[in-house]
Amino acid sequence: MPEALRLVAFVCATWIATDVGYSSFRPEFGVSLIWPLSGVALLWAATGDRRTWPLDAVLLGAVSSAALVVAGSTSGQAAMGALQVVLQATLYQSVMVRWAPRLWGSGGTRPLRRTADLCVFLVAVTVASAVASGVRTAGLGLVPTSDLQDAALVLARNLSWMLAVGAVVLQLGPRLAPAGPRPALHPEARPPTTADRAWRGSLVELVALALVTAAVYAAVFTRQQPLPLTFLLTVPSLWAAMRLDPLRAAVHAAASGTFAIVMTLSGSGVFASMVDPRLGAALAQALLAVLVLKTLVISCVMSERDAAIRRAQVSEAASLGRAALLGAVLQNMNEGIVVAREDGEVLVRNAAGDAMLRSSVMLSTGPDRAAAEEARLFHPDGTVLDEAELPFRRALAGEEVLREDLVLRFGSSPEGRVIEVSASPVPETEDSPRAAVVNFRDVTTVREHEGDLAAFAGVVAHDLNNPLTVVSGWADSLADFFSLGDVSAEDGQAMTARIQGAAAHMRRFIDDLLGYTVARDRPLTPEDLDLSAVAEEVARLRRDGPTHPEIEIEPGIQVRADVVLVRQLLDNLVGNAVKYVAPQTRPRVTLACRPAGDMVELRLSDNGIGIPESMRQRVFETFVRVQTDGYGGTGLGLDICRRVVVRHGGEIRVEEGADGIGSTFVFTLPRAGSPLPGLAPVERQQVGVSPDPSA
Ligand code: ADP
Which of the listed residues 508, 510, 551, 576 should we mutate to test ligand 1's pocket, taking the one with most ligand atoms within 8 A of CB? Predict the structure, then answer.
């Protein structure tokens, strides 16, 4: 609303309110009983800008005093009346801006919905009306005269009218100008945080309430000789306060109280029939104040209750969401988690924990005790864990157990599984007694691989060390001979030949190690390929060797395989076939094939020294060698072959050669065009020296 229009509206309202108030003056009461001017002044101050209030206040005082004079007051009475109104509004607004800055009318946008704001409001209206009434009374020269009753009546009237109008205005204001850009009168001004209590009842209830209110007030106020039925007034006022939204409830209370005052003015009803009319008038004002006050208190308490319920619902929904998320995470974890109380009651247990092992084993007491009996925990050195050593018990005693290996043995796994366990105490609270969280995972395979790796590293170190010793030994001897100056060319050549031989052995070993890594780690890229062609390439290089081996390959063998790995496979097998032959024997090698379902069975035969039956399975293990005298090697070649074949979903074995001569290596690979079978039997990706049943 433009400022000028607003001023005109307030000037008119002030004049009308003063006039209405003055016309409610009765000599028997000594004061006007209806005093809307208090409310108009309050509204004027609440909707104005603090900086322009001094001017507004002057205008308010001028208009109200003029209206009083026109209505018939003496100039003194008019001046005091105007001063009272201005003082009252100024004091009220100062208290509100200072102590309830977030409320609509004091710089904020919030409706009157909180008990804290209500307290400030009550203090503001009480202080404002008390001081203003006191000043007026003093100004009119009534103090120290004995007419204190008049002063009390003025105070009651001012207070109740400020309460009534303020209650309605502070509910209505935020609806009319909810969050509009009002001049911030206080730096703490913020948007409302307490949600509105909206009226969701039916029209029928509103009509019923109106009828009951009318009936009760008619019974109490329209009879000349009233029955003592005042207690009935509680019914509609309580009904309205409990069921209506704060604005409607405030309007109901203000209207009911005003009706009581109007009836008292007109001489009917319970208050008009009192012997002392001024006491009756004061009681009518008190009724208005109490009705409004009761409504405000109930509205605020219920609003706060509703807001608390809403907050609780929101946080409950958030907690449930978080709990569901946490539960899902817990259930999908690979680690087993158990949270249990001191008495063994399990509070949380996830699926991984259930699947991996009986979680009760970790607790060993409580309802799962029977199941726990079947299984037992051991230290890695094989000694049994006693109760006090259980990670769960130790955590309960306040200890942090960090990644300790234990061996769990039970019926289906007598050799035991290695379990890595951690445990820590759960902070104790008043309502949750001592508990501990235990998490564990099966590390059997990891530990096996770690062991295999250590053994592998040991063998590698040993096998590299031997030729190195040879190299450094002969190099030292050579140096000694040179320092003495008596080394012949022949001796020198013999010594360097040994050094070269050892270096060549090391190179071969390193090449085999690299081949081993390729066979194990190279990503498989299978393709349809002519295996005969690959084998021919391999054979061509071998045929040029010193023994001029005779190598015969069946043409047209088609397989689906990784060409790099297959070349490595054939190279190792053909290499062994031409190497492990008796002295002075010309190696003879044949490669033939026959279909076997989706696979192709290949047979590589030689006329070599053969492999004893007892070693035919073990030769595929890492570093296992049968014939070492006179035959160089590392013991990795056949392990590489096994890995390549297994990675293609095939199998490999060695048989005695035809007519008991030599050996025949039999292995399968997918035939061309067929899908690669799923990774066949447990392909042990990690290095290992222990027997692999899949080989
Ligand atoms: P190496 O590096 O010793 O050749 P391999 O893993 O290739 O290692 O072979 C393991 C052992 O199997 C060899 O030491 C050898 O005794 C035996 N062997 C492999 N192939 C043949 C074969 N064709 N004829 C006879 N013995 C063989």
Answer: 576
